[in-house]
Design brief:
single chain; mainly alpha; globular
Length: 67
């Protein structure tokens, strides 16, 4: 699993991601996120890496205080 930044323009990507969610209600926004995750997972194509990413994301949530 690669955790070093690899996106050439992370701020631009984040802005595009936020813009994609504009005008969507919470359910549609969640749908967009789910579809995006599946598309990106397919681009990766390595199930071991994907499972490691799931574990890392869950662990991060376990260690953060609940807002």
């Amino acid at each position: 699993m690669n955790t070093e930044p690899r996106i050439p323009d992370p701020d631009g990507f984040y802005a595009a991601l936020l813009a994609a969610h504009e005008g969507l209600d919470e359910a549609r926004s969640a749908d967009l996120n789910a579809r995006l995750v599946l598309l990106l997972a397919n681009q990766c194509g390595d199930q071991a890496v994907l499972l490691a990413c799931i574990d890392a994301a869950r662990e991060d949530l376990r260690t953060r205080p609940t807002p």
